[in-house]
Amino acid sequence: MLAIGNHIISRYEKYPHSTHCTAIVIFIIVLYCKVIGHEFLINWDDVDYITQNPLIQKINVANLKQIFLSPFNGNYAPLLMLSFMGDYAIWGLNPSAFKLINVLLHATSALIFYHLMLRLGLSAVQAFIAATLFAVHPVQVETVAWASQRKSVLSMGFFLAAWFSWDVWNRADVHRKHCWYIFSLICFTSALCSKSIAVVLPFILITQEFVLNRKRITKDTITPLLPYLLLLGSFIALAIVAAKGSGGGSVPYHGGSFGITAMNMLPVFARYLLLLFMPNSLTIIYNAPLKNFPDMSILVGGLILLAFIVVWLWLGKRNPRYFFWLTIFVIGLLPVTNIVPIVTLMNDRYLYFPMLGMAPFVVLVGDDACKFLKVNKTLLPAVVTTIAVMVLSVITWKQVDVWKNSVSLWKNAIEKAPTGTWYETSDKTDYIQEGYVEALIVEATRFIAEGRVGDAQKLSLTALSYDPNNYNALGLLAEAHMQENQPLKARPYLLRLVNMYPASEAAHLYLGKNYTMTNEKELAAEQFNIVIKINPTNQRALQGLNDLTTRHFPGSP
Question: Which residue of 21, 115, 163, 372 has the lowest C-beta tally within 10 Å?
Fold first, then answer.
């Protein structure tokens, strides 16, 4: 055993970067392997982007023209659509394949990030820990395990490749400069064509040049950044135009004004910081009721933001490395702070880019703290780091299960939502409940089609517990019992349907069929005649009446 241990140590000392990269990839594969077997989310964007998107389901000139010349859902992201088109051409509508590609893209980004941090002054161990935190943190699950969030993982890969290439160009000898610079611009353009969040790259490069590299503002330092700024301006203009299209992500300011939006973002910022260090209450819908006047949560959030800004600016004078990485966090967060209004105030996926700054910052602070406490040469830092990574990994492992399908996703949301307080505004009081019920109904409908009657009944009953008069849930329960040849058990649900929805052809038709199954001809004829009165051309009702006159019922003369 000692010989094996010595061999492992010697291999690590000889190939530390290969060991670190292998470990990062293993971490990601182990934590996200469960996405194989997950389903598309039927009421959470996957329908629009993938399962019912005709643009990705056939490779032809018309679709390619539409992808490159028109925004989709208010966003210009042609490379995102091309990636979905490629997936569909290879795998068809296989949700596991779509999600597996997300996992591989996330792993690729983690590896590029590791090597980028090495170039930016972190040691191999520091870069490994920071890249691991970026890779396994639970707030990343929404981005990686949700098929439609391909936009974020795809954009991140190109974004980091652009940043890495720019840094190589910035330090390269004259014979290699131009190819790396051109490649960086190509990657930046590709990142923008995947998701507009990549517009932050020029600001990161400026911060690196004048904060981390401590260069002076001269023509030689400004000129290379101009093409990035030009691309940034072009895509901002394009995003504004795209947002005016139907289904876009641009909305008016929450509460009707920038002031109210900014005020309500104060507790959101505090909650983001909390999630980074205590990510144990993640959900797709956060309780963020819109407030028109300051309350205690807004005051506390404001104080936390003020303290953060003071520390951030103080670090700018005392420690450029700390300041640089914390600035990367701020730059990554700014686009989702509703300075330019977006649909939601808060989401886990909004922390995907900011984690590029927070992960190295935490590692550097922790490393310096160990040196200050003189425990850096003991096992304590390794033990604490291992425990932290293990705890985060366990939370991530469980959070991946939340994204298995729409039912599990909305069930988690409804469990996390406090009673009586809901997302954003009072007019969305039932938003989470409606999402959960809709997911239950769609899943129960699929189970009925597959003959899984018992499972369909369970889901339909759960839907009725949240919405006792839900039309679809009542109908599915009746359908399930009738499939099991239990018309009397189905009847109470059908009677409720016709009482609540007297103009429903389907409700009266199924009740007529139900009476037919129990040989109650007069009651059946009454229901079929009601259907014909509503719609004289209803062929199923006409056929039902015809069956009553021609069919021989047991016990009839």
Answer: 372
Q: Are 461 and 483 in contact (CB under 8 A)?
A: no
Please answer whether residues 225 and 205 qualify as being in contact, where contact means their C-beta atoms are separated by less than 8 angstroms: yes
| 388-396 contact pairs (CB < 8 A, 24+) | 389/129, 389/132, 389/133, 389/136, 392/133, 392/136, 392/137, 392/138, 392/279, 393/27, 393/31, 393/136, 395/138, 395/279, 395/280, 396/31, 396/136, 396/137, 396/138, 396/140, 396/141
Q: Which long-range contacts (CB under 8 A, 24 or more apart) does 222-228 make?
A: 224/170, 224/181, 227/185, 228/185, 228/188, 228/201, 228/202
DSSP letters, 111-178, are: HHHHHHHHHTT--HHHHHHHHHHHHH-GGGHHHHH-GGGHHHHHHHHHHHHHHHHHHHHHHS-TTTHH
Q: Which two tokens stand for residue 277?
A: 């260090």
CA-CA distance, 57 to 84, in Å (whole number)? 9
User: For residues 139 and 119, what is the distance between their CA atoms, to the nearest angstrom?
Assistant: 26
The secondary structure of 9-52 as a DSSP string is: HHHHHHSHHHHHHHHHHHHHHHHHGGGTT----TTTTHIIIIIT
CA distance 22 to 458: 44
From residue 286, alpha-carbon distances to 45, 260, 347, 430, 432 in Å are 18, 18, 7, 13, 10
Radius of gyration over alpha carbons of the chain, in Å? Answer: 29
Residue 421 CA: distances (Å) to CA of 289, 295, 438: 7, 15, 20
**Tell me, what DSSP letter sits at residue 269?**
H
Reading the block at residue 360, the tokens are 């190295």
How many angstroms separate the first and last alpha carbons of the chain? 89
Query: Model-level pTM?
Result: 0.88
